[in-house]
Amino acid sequence: MKALNRGIKRIVDIVLSIIGLVFTVPTILVVAILIKLEDGGNVFFAQTRIGLNGKRFKMFKIRSMRPDAEQIKEQLLKHNEMSGPMFKIKNDPRMTRIGVFIRKTSIDELPQLFNVLKGDMSLVGPRPSLPQEVEQFEPWMLERLQVKPGLTCFWQVSGRNHIDFEDWMRLDVKYVKEQSLWLDLKLIFKTVFVLFGDEHAS
Predict the structure, then answer these.
(1) What are the structural domain ranges in the chain?
(2) Are the C-beta atoms of 25 and 113 separated by less than 8 Å?
(3) CA angle 83, 88, 91 (to 5 degrees)
(4) Angstrom distance (rounded) from CA 74 to CA 151
(5) Is 0.70 surpassed by the pTM of this model?
(6) Which of 64, 91, 151, 178 has the most CB atoms within 10 Å of its CB?
(7) For residue range 161-178, what is the model confidence (pLDDT) as tens digits?
(8) 85, 133 Cβ separation under 8 angstroms
(9) How many CB atoms lie within 10 A of CB 31?
């Protein structure tokens, strides 16, 4: 039965990600033009993340930060608003003007639909972590690596930056234990409403 559920989940991922790309390519093109007009830098970037069973893969995003964002991250660590190994600042000074908007609407995540098509990610699952973050996980947190990382999850629809690190990890483990096609569809549905009206969506 588990194999059947995985097969159905994969089919849903492929179908919905193709539909998503068809409808969002115009948006991606407009954003790409705006990024080029703002600073002339690269539109996309790929970053190594940890996926199913600890496998590394390249996750794609639309660039929302200055080209030198990684170089100045060290200077901002003292302002980190997340507990644990994750680094997040609500009003990150590294964000570009167009970057603020695409982060607010999660447009920067749209290229991950290609990761879903490739099979590195799923539409629903724990958000993929950086290798240096996973190295600092407690043993019980590694259970989240038993499923493919996803575009959305419990954390994504439950407050995001307003949830501390351990509660975030507990939500991911909760998903691993309760995962089902019905739960995936509910989380996808909730994500749409979070992106278009929830005050915690930034």
Answers:
(1) 2-195
(2) no
(3) 130
(4) 27
(5) yes
(6) 151
(7) 678 889 999 999 999 999
(8) yes
(9) 23
3-state secondary structure of 49: strand
What are the pLDDT digits (tens) for 11-56?
999 999 999 999 999 999 999 999 999 988 899 999 999 999 999 9
Residue-by-residue DSSP string for 141-196: GGGGGGS--EEE-TGGGTTGGGS-HHHHHHHHHHHHHH--HHHHHHHHHHHHHHHT
CA distance 100 to 98: 5
Q: Which two tokens stand for residue 109?
A: 């995540």
Instruction: Report the alpha-carbon distance of residue 150 to residue 179 in Å, rounded.
Output: 12
Q: CA 144 to CA 52: how far, in whole Å?
A: 9
Query: Locate tokens 């590694």: which residue?
Result: 142
| CA–CA distances in Å: residue 13 to residues 32, 145, 174, 178 | 25, 18, 21, 18
> How far is it, in rounded angstroms, from Cα 3 to Cα 99?
40
The torsion region of residue 86 among left (phi > 0), alpha (psi -120 to 50) and beta comes to beta
Residue 81 burial (C-beta neighbours within 10 Å; 0-12, 13-18, 19+): middle
